[in-house]
Please model this.
Amino acid sequence: MADDLIARVVLRLAGGPPRAVALSLGVDAFPIAVLFGPSGAGKSTLLRCIAGLERPAAGVVRWRDRAWFGAATWVPPQDRDVGFVAQQGALFPHLDVADNVAFGLAALGPAERARRVAEVLDRFDLGGLRRRAPATLSGGERQRVALARAVARRPSLLLLDEPFSALDHPARSALRADLRRWVRALGLPTLLVTHDPAEAMAVGDTLAVLDAGQVRQTGPVGAVFERPCDAATARILGVDTLVAATVLRAGAGTAVVRAGDGELTVSAPEGLAGRVRVCVRAEDVTLRAGNLGAEGNGAPGRVLRVDDEGAFAVVSLDCGFPLVARLPRRALRALGLAAGDAVFAAIDPSAAWAVADG
Model:
C-alpha cells in the first residue's frame, strides 16, 4: 500500500545550507502523527512546505493520490485541502468568533455556511462565545477558535504547528485531550509538530523523530519513546541517562553489560555487541538508602545532588557512572537522602534499553 503522505524535499533553512528531508507516513500513522524534534530540526519548515506556505528548493510533496509539489507541479495552499493552525492561531481581530470560523466557507451558500458554523461551534464548545471578539478570549479559547476555523472547511489533512506552546499548563492539558477526542470523532488525519515529549505522548499515535533534517526513527509513540533506535535519538527523546557500557553476553532480547565496576542486565535488540549505551529514564530508577550490599539489578552509588522540582525530586548519583533518579518528594523524605549519602540504585531490566554507541 502506498504511503498517504510523502514529503521528500530540500528545505531552505535560515542561517544554513539547504537540507534534504524525507518523511513518509502510511495510513496506519494516523489519525494523529507527531513530527518531533529539537528547535531548529526543520519541523515547522517541513510542515509549511506540506501546507504550501513555503516552496521547497526541490523534491516532491504528495498527499494520498494528489501531487502538491514536484518538478513541474505547484498547487497553491488554498487548493491543497488542508487545515493549518500555527502557534498563535492568527485570528482576525476585527471579526467575532463565528465570523472567524466562517471565514474559509465563502464557497458555501448562506444557509449551509450558517449550518456549518453552528455545527463546528457546538463541537468545539464555542457556542457561548460566538459573538465575542478575539481580544476578549483567553489563550486557550483563541486556539480553540483557530482549530474550529481550520476544521470547518472539512480538510482532508490537518496540520498543527506547536498550537499549544504559548498556553499555560491547565489550558494546554485540556486542549490536548479535546484535540484527540475531536480528531477521532471527525476521522481527520492530523500531523502535529512539537518538541514537547509530554504533548507527543498525550496526543499522538505515531512519532517521527526529526533531527537536523533527518528522520531518525518512526513508529508508534510509546514504542519509540521506550525503545529509541540509537544514542542520538535517545538524547532527543529526553532520556535522562545514557550509560557507557560493554556487552558481556547477550540472549533473546536481553544483554548483560559491564557498566562502571559492575554488571547490569538490560533489554537489547538482537545481535547487539561491543560498546553500547544503556538508556535509563530517571523515573525507572528505584533508590534504597544505605544499602550498598543490595542484591538485584542495579549499582551501589553515592548521592551527588538533590534538586527540588516541586512534586518530584531529581537525585544525581555517582554509581561508577553518572545516573539520575526521579522520585516523589514524599519518597525522598522517607529515604532521608542528602548529598554524600550511600544508596543502591535498582534498575528494572525491562525498562533499561541498550543501543549501539555513537
In short: The first helix runs from residue 43 to 51. The chain has a mean pLDDT of 92. The two ends are 34 Å apart (CA to CA).
